[in-house]
Amino acid sequence: MIKTIWITGASSGIGEALAEQWSCANATLILSGRNWPELERVGEACSKLGSVTHIVPFDLTNEVEITEAVSKVQSIAERIDILVNNGGVTQRSLIIDTSQDVNRRIMEIDFWGHVNLTRLILPFMIRTGGGTIVVMSSLSGLFGFPQRSMYCAAKHALHGFFETLRLEHYRDNIRVTMVCPGRIKTNISFHALTSTGTEHGVMDKGQLNGVAVEKCAAIIAKAVKKRRKQVIIGKADKLMPYFKRFVPWLFYSIALRIDPTG
Questions:
Q1: What's the CATH number where 33 sits?
Q2: Helical spans, DSSP H, in 49-191
Q3: Backbone phi, then psi, for 14, in 5-degree steps?
Q4: What is the pTM of this model?
Q5: Rounded to whole angstroms, how far apart are CA atoms 249 and 245?
Q6: Residue 127 counted as domain residue
Q7: Each residue of 155-190: pLDDT tens digit?
Q8: Which residues are known catalytic residues?
Q9: Domain around 146
Q10: Residue 259 lies in a domain
Q11: Is residue 245 part of a domain?
Q12: How far apart are CA 30 and CA 131, in angstroms?
């Protein structure tokens, strides 16, 4: 059975890799993000791999655009089998230096955008038989980390909201997979927001040496297929949640020594 999959943040990074991953299974893809030309590029590549693709651009911070996107998706798709809440932005700034405007912007993109989109498409998914909601959290959604205050806050909030959604709508055949990547080789650090809202503009060393994005996408696709509730992805960094839970003194010892931009 051909699945219909809606991916936000599909113009690059993990979103793009997931689109290509599911294209190989001939899924029908709905690709969203703000960058129309890049979405078209990804769409063309996915079409060559065997997928039918639709481009539905919108801004996660704009509730009107989200509402319009949901209406458009319902007009072109009979159902949504998988919704991937992937769009987002990270941070490179200390709490004491960060303006409230930057704090709010991060929370709007990384939390409220996904909440608003999911809230609006959820009745359609339930009405058409259910589906899986994939939520792109982070290792930073499982513990705090320097220079990521609002990013961590947004990711922690995603866990609270979507774990509740999982319980409330289990009988409606709605499943939720929380994805917690560590350092993945994408350009996310380059576009991270600084204390003033400008881009970090640097590819962090840890990001550069992270897990290949194609491998990350394959792990996510496998987790969704197996209906896993949570998947942690990374190299040595994926041990940190376990250290935090079982050997907290070791977690804090390591966290205090790690270069947050390294």
A1: 3.40.50.720
A2: 63-76, 100-107, 113-127, 149-168
A3: -65, -40
A4: 0.95
A5: 10
A6: yes
A7: 999 999 999 999 999 999 999 999 999 999 998 888
A8: 151
A9: 4-237
A10: no
A11: no
A12: 15
